[in-house]
Amino acid sequence: MSGAEEALRAHFGAGPPDAMGVAVSGGSDSLALLHLMRDWQDEGGPALRVATVDHGLRTEAGAEAAQVARLCAGLGVAHDTLRWDGQAARGNLPDAARRARYRLLAGWARRHGLRDVAIGHTADDVAETFLMRLARGSGLDGLAAMRDRWRDGGVTFHRPVLTLGRDGLRDHLRARGVAWADDPTNDDTTYTRTRARVALAALAPLGLGADTLAATAARLRAARTALGTCARRVAEEIAHVDGGDLLWRRDDFDALPDEIARRLLVAGVAWMTGRDYPPRGTAMAAFLGAARAGRRMTLQGCVLSAVRGHLRLSREYRAVAGLRAPSGAVWDGRWRATGGTGRATVAALGPAGLRACPGWRAGGLPHGPALASPGVWRGGTLIAAPLAGWENGWRLELLRGLDDYLDRLLA
Ligand SMILES: Nc1ncnc2c1ncn2[C@@H]1O[C@H](COP(=O)(O)OP(=O)(O)OP(=O)(O)O)[C@@H](O)[C@H]1O
């Protein structure tokens, strides 16, 4: 067995799935992944099904998908082309395309009863990312290598060739006479990744090859995992949820090293807002400073305050003042009103809601969090405010609880 075959099989350990999907763009990395997986299938590895995403962004993309389909037909593997209507996307297009790709792949896998999907990131991708992050001044989290597997949308995505170099994978394809598609953006030096690739080639004579940098990034990933595990243990001890707020015991928080304290805050903000991307480093440093000083500060629509021996993270009223959702639907990404009868609307209590609910202090929430907390309204009239102590037949269910927060500390 070649080293590449061994590495690929080692990724799955003793219990590989019976069947799995492979995401193949037509580039060398994912084509080599496909061939390695296909050889394994003959020797008892998972049965394969392949998908290519046509993002509709380059004219050649359709032809490349058709080329992958032909190749799969030759290998006796089922192939599907998934199309994305990228016209609707705004903002950062490559990022939107990447997110859409994972969403489409997860949906495709679920439709075909596949719980695992392999993608072709390599050690070169890790090394290029490492250089790009160095250039941005990233710390441990940014420099750590990408995960070799993660769950999303009910599917586990695998990177079985993450420790292998691109050159070796290309040799594997050449030996089999397989041609791959070269994405023209790979030579376009307006892309940071292309410049990182060029820089990497220049660093090789120093002994700083892709494999060396990828090995360092893998060590940093192990360190990141260890810190995440410690942060989670600390949070289990000192954090709790009250209403929709997250609280940490202040004495314990103050005694934490900055690195752990920062992780507790970053995960708290992500938990509250549902955003995947952490705040910028400078903003986060200021937030940590405010936490240390017990000073009020707002970040990404969340408010940090020091109240009665606790640090309290709450939703900012301004961030949710305009949000409306029919009862039964999800409000602010994390609340659902149930139990009452008839149609109603969920919206923040705000000043009008608190006026309509004079006993709101009975709910135990401070004034700011009470303003931002959800109430149930009908035609502009408040009919229930369960978090402010007035249930009136309605319940408000928090869809992300403490466990979700704790899990984010490991992510
Ligand atoms: N159009 C596509 N169709 C199917 N799979 C794809 C497609 N594009 C990428 N992939 C899968 O994702 C893997 C990584 O590709 P690529 O490096 O372009 O991904 P990315 O996540 O967009 O990149 P980045 O590393 O810049 O975040 C490929 O090896 C392949 O398995």
UniProtKB/TrEMBL annotation:
ATP binds at residues 25-30. The keyword Transmembrane does not apply. GO terms for molecular function: tRNA(Ile)-lysidine synthase activity. The N-terminal region contains the highly conserved SGGXDS motif, predicted to be a P-loop motif involved in ATP binding. Belongs to the tRNA(Ile)-lysidine synthase family. The keyword Endoplasmic reticulum does not apply. It comes from Roseovarius ramblicola. It catalyses: cytidine(34) in tRNA(Ile2) + L-lysine + ATP = lysidine(34) in tRNA(Ile2) + AMP + diphosphate + H(+). Keywords: ATP-binding, Cytoplasm, Ligase, Nucleotide-binding, tRNA processing. NCBIfam families: lysidine_TilS_N. It is an enzyme of class 6 (ligase). CDD domains: TilS_N (cd01992). Residues 21-197 form the tRNA(Ile)-lysidine/2-thiocytidine synthase N-terminal domain. Its EC number is 6.3.4.19. Ligates lysine onto the cytidine present at position 34 of the AUA codon-specific tRNA(Ile) that contains the anticodon CAU, in an ATP-dependent manner. Cytidine is converted to lysidine, thus changing the amino acid specificity of the tRNA from methionine to isoleucine. This is tRNA(Ile)-lysidine synthase.
